[in-house]
Amino acid sequence: MLRALLLENIHPDAVEILRDAGIQVESRPGALDEDELIETLADFQILGIRSKTQVTRRVVESLPGLLAVGTFSIGTNQIDLEAAAAHGVAVFNAPFSNTRSVVELAVAEIIALTRRLTVRDSALHQGVWDKTADGSHEVRGRTLGIIGYGNIGSQLSVLAENLGMNVVFFDTSEKLALGNARRVETLDELLAVSDAVTIHVDGRAGNAGLFGEDLFARMKPGAIFLNLSRGFVVDVDALRTHILSGHLSGAAVDVFPTEPKKRGDHFDSPLRGLDNVILTPHVGGSTEEAQQNIGQFVAKKLRDYLFTGSTMLSVNLPNLQLEHTGVGRIALLHRNVPGVLAAVNQVFADHGANIEAQMLATRGELGYVVTDISDVTQRGASAKLMEMATTVRLRIRDAFDRPEFPPGPAAG
Question: Which residue ranges does the record assign to the ACT domain (predicted)?
Answer without folding.
Answer: 329-404
